[in-house]
C-alpha cells in the first residue's frame, strides 16, 4: 500500500517528518512518501525520503511568474506530484496540462478529486493514480474509509471503468492503521493523509502506528 503524507502548510518541521518517513519506509512493506511545500522540497529530498510535490502548474519554461515548473520540482528531488488537490483546485484543462507537464519532467502523478464522477474524469487524463478526498471530511479526523466507504468503492469502480491501469488512493481523516486497512479492503491501493501525521506530537509514532498492520 502507498502512504503519501501531505504536509500542506502545517507548521511542522518538514525535515524531521521526512526523516520519520524515510525510517518507517525501511521498516514496512508499505511505500511511504512525503509531500512538503515547494520551498522545502530540496531539504526534504536530501533526507533520502521519497519526496513529492504538492502541486505543479500547467506551464513550460518561460514567462510564468509565481508558477511552479515541473522540471524545477524534479530538479529539487521530487519524484512525483499531486495535481488538483481540493485546496489547490484546477480547471479540467489545467489538470490535463499539469499532468502533461509532470510527465514531461518524469514525475509520477496523483490527481485528486472530490467524488467518483470527478475520479472518472481524472482517470481519463491518464495519471498514474487518482485520489478521492471528500472535502467535508478533510482535516476532521473522521476517516473516509470508515465514514463513507461507498465513496471509495464507487471511486475504484469509476476509475477502473475508464482505465484499469490507474490506481486509486483515498484520503480525508485517515490517521490509523485501521483506517488504512479499511481503505485497502474497499479497493484503494493507497492513502493520502495530512493532519494525522503533520499535526501529531510524535510524527514517527503516528506513522509507525499507521503502517503497523500493512
Ligand atoms: O487533504 C488531505 C491529504 O491530501 C487529507 O487531510 P487530512 O488527513 O488532514 O484529513
Kindly name the structural category: alpha/beta
CATH architecture label: Alpha-Beta Barrel
How many individual helices?
A: 10
Biggest sheet: strands side by side, in what order?
1-2-3-4-5-6-7-8
Radius of gyration (CA) equals 16 Å
The gross shape turns out to be: globular
In N-to-C order, the SSE pattern is EHEHEHEHEHEHHEHEHH
Mean pLDDT: 97
How big a fraction of the residues is strand? 15-25%
Number of domains: 1
Strand segment tally: 8
Bound molecule kinds, no repeats: 1,3-dihydroxyacetonephosphate
Tell me the CATH superfamily. Aldolase class I
Roughly how many Å apart are the termini? 7 Å
Which features would summarize this protein structure in a list?
214 residues, alpha/beta, TIM Barrel, 8 strands, globular, binds 1,3-dihydroxyacetonephosphate, Triosephosphate isomerase, TIM_sf, Triosephosphate_isomerase
Task: Describe this protein's structure.
This protein is of the alpha/beta class and 214 residues long. The protein has a single domain (2-211), classed as Alpha-Beta Barrel (TIM Barrel), CATH 3.20.20. Helix content is 40%, strand content 17%. The protein is built from ten helices and eight strands. It has helices spanning 14-26, 41-45, 70-75, 92-104, 116-123, 144-147, 149-162, 177-185, 195-198, 203-211, and strands spanning 2-6, 31-35, 50-53, 80-83, 108-113, 129-132, 167-171, 190-193. It has an eight-stranded parallel barrel, surrounded by five helices. β5, α5 (116-123) and β6 form a beta-alpha-beta unit. α1 (14-26) packs parallel to α10 and α5 runs parallel beside α7 (149-162). The longest helix has 14 residues, at 149-162. The model has no long low-confidence stretch (mean pLDDT 97). 1,3-dihydroxyacetonephosphate binds next to β8 and α9. Its main location: cytoplasm. Belongs to the triosephosphate isomerase family. It is found in: Cytoplasm.
